[in-house]
Amino acid sequence: MDVGILVNNVGIAPPHPTFRKFDDISKEHLYNEITVNTGAPSQMTRMLLPHMKQRKRGMIVFVGSIVQVFKSPYFVNYSGTKAFVGHFVNCLTREISHHNIQTQILIPSVVDTNMSKGDHFMRKMHDWLRAFAYPTATTYASWAICTLGWCKFATGYWFFDCTKVFSIMGENLGIMPFVLRQILRFSYGSKVIN
């Protein structure tokens, strides 16, 4: 089997509404999310890695999520599974780098896919802003592919790079929990979070 690039782009998130308390997620969904988000990329990598090692070349790309980097209440299980993917990539990179196999992890924000169709923020945005903030899968892929071979870690889209900078500033200044609470109150009402 001659596969030059493996892209592990798989994931399921909590059912909508997206913002859900951890203990409100069903046991079945919890296990499905863990199995799909961590098991599928691990198994695909395990299946194709021997062939790449034999040829002494290849690239393995993993699609994580921006929520794996920041404290993400109401995405507890999803962000945990994506953090697993990030750590998995870091460990795998050290293990296989001498085989001339490259790895990369992409950490996008929300991309306009079936998984994000119920996103409350996306539905309320003006069309012109949605075009920048929530790229289609095709737009995201065309930007992300430009990062292949250039870096091991990328958001994959220019607007996500901008939001990452502001998120890091907010997280370091301790204002992100406050901002998130205000967004949740505005979007879902004060009963959602105190």
Automatic annotation (TrEMBL):
It holds the Pfam family adh_short. Keywords: Oxidoreductase. SUPFAM superfamilies: NAD(P)-binding Rossmann-fold domains (SSF51735). One of its GO terms (molecular function) is oxidoreductase activity. It comes from the Eukaryota. Belongs to the short-chain dehydrogenases/reductases (SDR) family. This is Inactive hydroxysteroid dehydrogenase-like protein 1. It comes from Diaphorina citri (Asian citrus psyllid). The lineage of its organism: Eukaryota, Metazoa, Ecdysozoa, Arthropoda, Hexapoda.
